[in-house]
Amino acid sequence: MKKIAIYGKGGIGKSTTTSNLSAALARKGFRVMQIGCDPKADSTKNLMEGRKIPTVLDMLREKDDQVELEDICFAGYGNVVCVESGGPTPGIGCAGRGIITAFEKLEELDAFAVYRPDIVFYDVLGDVVCGGFAMPIRGGYADNVFIVTSGEMMALFAADNIARAIGNFGKRGYAKLSGIIQNSRNVEDEDELVRKAAGEMHTQVLHIVPRDKTVQLAENQGKTVIEAFPDSPMAADYQALADKVLEVIGQ
Which reaction does it catalyse (predicted)? Predict the structure, then answer.
């Protein structure tokens, strides 16, 4: 089982990228689990035909110790196992702590042993790398980390913060930064800006995802590009990204 964390600034297209990766790998025959680690709980909706699934924290509030795997794990496109950690009641509690609680519940219920995924994706908000949001790195959950960014200043700023956090925890033998995924926004000199930033983070630009209206057309249907437009150039681009991820993680 390979465990991969995908980090990036909110709104950068991290969940879109992760969902299309999950769908692409499922089409290749891999058993995939995607765990959304964002209070918005919308990481997996395009694998679930646009439907937002109940979150781990919501079910814990509703059922307490009676929560079972079927309450928090759902089969999406390509039988991708979809999980959303969720967040606290607005204005009360800590979102980072919510991620820790969700992870603990999945472990308690032996989710990985039951579903036996080949690949697990943690889709993690990266604006603030506090203890909870750093859980996939520092808790020894993820083996590899990829950062999604564009050439926009704030996206690159967030990417640098994430890289620094990975570097701090990497000294303890935890997850390593394995590359940058450029989700293009067509800003001026974008490829060069991201390439330079990757060098400063001591990593590589794994893949450049072009800006394409096909992504929005698919999301309007509540689907990934892989599902909605499997023969499109954009689907081929996500498949190429999936191949590169497999190469990096040794699958």
Answer: N2 + 8 reduced [2Fe-2S]-[ferredoxin] + 16 ATP + 16 H2O = H2 + 8 oxidized [2Fe-2S]-[ferredoxin] + 2 NH4(+) + 16 ADP + 16 phosphate + 6 H(+)
**pTM, 2 dp:** 0.94
Spell out the alpha helix ranges (H) of 91-144: 95-108, 111-115, 135-138
How far is residue 69's CA from residue 59's CA, in Å, rounded to a whole number? 10
Say whether 12 sits in a helix, a strand or coil.
Answer: coil
CB 132 within 8 A of CB 98: yes
Q: What is the distance between the alpha carbons of residues 155 and 96, in angstroms, rounded to a whole number?
A: 20
| Residue reference for tokens 């909706």 | 45
User: Both tokens of residue 223?
Assistant: 């689907």
Phi, psi of 203 (to 5 degrees): -145, -170
Q: Residues 140-173: pLDDT tens digits?
A: 788 999 999 999 999 999 999 999 988 887 666 6
Q: Which two tokens stand for residue 231?
A: 């023969």
The secondary structure of 21-42 as a DSSP string is HHHHHHHTT--EEEEEESTT--
Q: Are 137 and 146 in contact (CB under 8 A)?
A: no
The sign one gets for the Cα dihedral 51, 122, 204, 163 is positive
Give the tens place of pLDDT for each residue, 20-78.
999 999 999 999 999 999 888 999 999 999 999 999 999 998 998 899 999 999 999 99
Catalytic residues: 9, 14, 40, 127
